[in-house]
Amino acid sequence: MSNNLPHAVAADRDVVFADGNTYHLSPLTLRDWGEIDVWLEDYVKRRAERVYRDAPADVKAEGIRTAYARANRVSFANVDGVGLLTTPEGTARVLWHALRRAHPSLTPEDVKELWNDEVGRKVERMLEAANRIVDPTEAPAVTTPMTK
User: Fold this and answer.
1) What pTM was computed for the model?
2) For 37-61, what is each residue's pLDDT tens digit?
3) How far apart are CA 37 and CA 48, in angstroms?
4) 83-102 burial, b if ≥16 CB within 10 A, otherwise e?
């Protein structure tokens, strides 16, 4: 069984980046999406630590506690995660996952430098497709012996 999400990415194609070179995007696997979820959790935590770094101790403690609670719930499969994946850092992370098999020397920072509007539109379609896959309102009905 393949671990590629069947319709999650408009990938497995070549894309011209801002440097004029062509790069190959590979389909994202379940492992990629799991690693993206781990990155999202860490991203929320790091961002809160930066925001509250110089805050008074009580404000900092409450802000960090709230952010860590949010971080435990964020996922590519929910609105919070999709929103974060549309930031430059999130988009670069998704693209890096799609690029890293064919271009192992690229880093997420490299990907930010290679950004252009064409790539942005393709990533947007990838994220929309991924969100549709996990939207329970669009899931097909499942028939079991209990529901017949």
Assistant:
1) 0.69
2) 999 999 999 999 999 999 999 999 9
3) 17
4) ebbeeeebbbbbbbbbbbee
d(CA 89, CA 84): 8
Q: Which amino acid is at 141?
A: A
Angle, CA of 45, 47 and 50, to the nearest 5°: 110
Average pLDDT, stretch 67-74?
89
pLDDT at 121 over 80: no
Phi, psi (5° rounding) for residue 123?
-65, -40
CB 132 within 8 A of CB 82: no
- pLDDT value of position 46: 92
- Tokens representing 143 are 């028939």
Length of the chain: 148
Count Cα neighbours of 121 within 13 Å in the Cβ-side half-sphere: 5
